[in-house]
Amino acid sequence: MAIYLTATGLHKPKDKITNEELVSAFNAYVDNYNRDNATAIEAGDKTALQHSSAEFIEKASGIKSRYVIDKKGILDPNIMAPIFPARKLGEELSIMAEMGVDALNQALDNAGLKAEDLDGIICACSNFQRVYPAIAIEIQNAVGMTGGFAFDTNVACSAATFGIAQATGMIKAGLAKRVAVVNVEITSAHLNWRNRDSHFIFGDIAAATIIEQSDTPKGYEILDCKLFTQFSTNIKNEYGFMDRSEYLASGEEMHHDIKEPVTDKLFLQEGRKVFREVCPKVSEIISTHLAENQIASEQVKRLWLHQANINMIDLILRTVMGKDADKNIAPIAITEYGNTSSASPMIAFHEHQDGVSSGDLGVICSFGAGYSIGSVIVKKI
Ligand code: COA
Q1: Which of 65, 136, 159, 358 fits 123 for a cystine, CB–CB 3.0-4.6 Å?
Q2: For this structure, is 125 an active site residue?
Q3: Which 3-state string (H, E, C) describes the chain?
Q4: Which of 197, 202, 276, 311, when mutated, tests ligand 1's pocket best, judged by the most ligand atoms within 8 Å of its CB?
Q5: Average pLDDT for residues 273-277, to the nearest whole number?
């Protein structure tokens, strides 16, 4: 039975922040903080904060801009968080569902399908705005899919390939014929915009991918999927519904003030360690996966990689394909979008298919917190 990745869709939030805008807001916050805490800093009770720099951000990560759902709050040095009004569940579409519906409708259009042609929707993301009811089921309802099933799954930045593997497996098992994988990321709400080490990394987005069994070959045939996880605390977001109980047990006061968010529970990473540990493992997984499928690396025409860092992409490309590998093999989306977590390899895939010809082989690969790595080998029809 052949299974195909037949179409993708992309929802882009309207607001875009350049490095220069971001750094200007961050540095204003730093100046305010250092001024307000001058006495404590002088006495050695507090540490002065350091400026961020647009040059550093571009050189260290490759990022020049990112899309977000609310620019104004993020760029206000007194707030530094996106602001959006609560929506009444059941009466209004949740923000995540709204973004996912737009990406999914585009993917359905591109596949020439209607929502009722789907048997399943997997909403595969890093950051869910609530625990339940599942965002996927809300999307299922909103697009007008009357039968089938929908569920959420979280494999952090690797959620797209894990979702594709899950969809492929369910189709093989006879549970469905067509499944949509939707990756919605409101990373701007989980990011600590006051943390110099990571304030520049993420962007908001939604991507959708249609996976179908078909007697007529179309799109890309999914040849094989490989998944890998290994526990690490080097990338984490511990924010959750246990916070209240943990604060009560600790005797500390709850943080109610938006100016003092519970920053230690938001996104945190040991960037250097992640870079050092994840790159070789990703290269190993892709190379092993290709070998298991009797594919030589020279046969691979495109690597649609997770967009976490331009230097990681370059290193993985050279390790898998050889040190003189053509850079066009691993397209770059991080420059414009930043790291969009689960959606990122699908943005690269969505936007960079030029030059891929019938019969060409490609790999969609994601990696991220967990650690988690997923590799999907595809062949262009
Ligand atoms: N502006 C200016 N300087 C900064 C800065 C900023 N925003 N942030 C850090 N620096 C400084 C540091 O203080 C440090 O200075 P020092 O050498 O004087 O101590 C220097 O720049 C290097 O910092 P470091 O954190 O080691 O940078 P890096 O080269 O490792 O780049 C990342 C940081 C996050 C871009 C990089 O580590 C990375 O991308 N890692 C992988 C992340 C990843 O894939 N995560 C997965 C998430 S899904």
Answers
A1: 136
A2: no
A3: CCEEEEEEEEECCCEEEEHHHHHHHHHHHHHHHHHHCHHHHHCCCCCCCCCCCHHHHHHHHCCCEEEECCHHHHHCCCCCCCCCCCCCECCECCHHHHHHHHHHHHHHHHHCCCHHHCCEEEEEECCCCCCCCCHHHHHHHHHCCCCCEEEEEECHHHHHHHHHHHHHHHHHCCCCCEEEEEEEECHHHHCCCCCCCCCCCECCEEEEEEEEECCCCCCEEEEEEEEEECCCCCEECCCCCCHHHHHHHHCCCCCCCCCCCCHHHCCEECHHHHHHHHHHHHHHHHHHHHHHCCCCHHHEEEEEECCCCHHHHHHHHHHHHCCCCCHHHCCCCHHHHCECHHHHHHHHHHHCCCCCCCCCEEEEEEEECCCEEEEEEEEEC
A4: 197
A5: 96
